[in-house]
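Intended use. Records like the one below are meant for learning the mapping from a protein sequence to its folded structure. Do not use them to infer anything beyond what is encoded.
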Amino acid sequence: MTDIRVVIVDDHQIVRDGLQSLLGALDGLSVIGTAADGVDALHVVDETVPDVVVMDIQMPRLDGIEATRRITARHPATRVVMLTMNEDDDTILSAIRAGASGYLLKGSGAEEVHHAVCAAAAGGMVFGASLAGRVAAYFSGATARAAEAPEPFPDLTERERSVLHLLAAGRSNDAIAAELYVSEKTVRNAVSAIYAKLHAAGRAEAIIKAREAGYGQG
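Structure written out for the chain above:
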């Protein structure tokens, strides 16, 4: 059986070294690269295309959540497990929305980390024991809310929704095109359709309406 190929991302060298020793000693795992921040992580992942990235959140230049968002967009088969000291609900949910497949707190035991990496590599999602109940409660509530509240802007296509999320987050057309891997013309056409369907006079009004509906956040 081929080892699960892992990249470690953390801005503290002592943490990187410790994780490399820990994970490298676990059966079925192979550490193939490390990075000191989100920007370096993008380069390392592009070069190695690992199975799993173990990612810190608070880092210079590019934080772990934005790095996760970009990695999962570029490499859909690569899974990301967050390993951090941060356990507030907003950060956990932002990580999930960015595409993280797991969320552990630093101080987790070797067995828990091993399980999380293996579960993520197999396509599952896993959360630390102290977080699992909170995440389950959130998703239970979200399911109930979704059943009660209709999807905003039902006339939008999936492509237009993706564009609107990025538009509401303040991205330019060039940046949206790069993030969605489409042409700028495709983005312009989608933006024009969004204006019409939202009955918005222009970009500013569309952004206001989108953010009021929860787009562009997290």
